[in-house]
User: Fold this.
Amino acid sequence: MTFNPNAKINGNKVSRRGRNTGLAVGGGGVGILLLVLLGPLLGVDLTGLLGDSGVSDSSVPGTSESLKQCRTGADANENLDCRMAGAALSIDAYWARDSPLPSYRSPQFRLFTDSTTTGCGVASSATGPFYCPTDESIYLDTGFFDELRSRFDASGGPLAQMYVVAHEWGHHIQNISGTMDGLDLRDTGPASDSVRLELQADCFAGAWAGAASTVPDESGTPFLEPITRQQVADALNAAAAIGDDRIQQRSNGQVESESWTHGSSSQRQQWFETGFTKGSSTCTTFGGRL
Assistant:
């Protein structure tokens, strides 16, 4: 998906945290436990492939820098951090315009390298992209996109990258709308609450992608040019690559559906397509059969 070169992405709220080193400060105990529980559920579950909880207790908060160098869509087309900044503005503007909520508030979006502290504990790059409901923030090590291609065999591409961001933004919508309240996120399986939550976030990501070329910047210029079928195929390929069945098959050679937390490759593709073609109001994964 290509940004309009003249679209304005300055003034974005995305920040990048520097590399973290040293002794943990306030990152242990309940915070680490919360991230162990929520990381694989509200992000991309890499534990099957990486064999790591993704939690470290040897980091402290690094310095944060705003992405002031990202000013236009041309910057977003050339630079990955700027693409994340542009994606955040587009997704935020979409939900501010089309959210069914009586009031909408934006999440924070924080890029990091190697490890970072969060409201849910201390995370490493092995955690994968995730949303922390405690501090209403999305966390992403952009090195994950290299993992998508090299470890998950995804085709990659800009829309595949932005799909990941839009999926995590979907979790924010679920959080502030109360969808997460009362769910049993420790339960697993193809019809579990955790799978329904993840598939709805995929559907929300598709809804944004379907409308993205109509979402304007503050001057009225659409952030993104019309999407192509190849770009949709890239996003669907990424959704399939991180399906529970695909990850299980690659990690241990067999599929155990009763341990699923995110849904199968085909389910993830199906719900992205549902949102893309029919909009966010059809993302009814809690309404019956998946």
Observations:
- The two ends are 28 Å apart (CA to CA).
- The chain has a mean pLDDT of 85.
- The first strand starts at residue 14 and ends at 17.
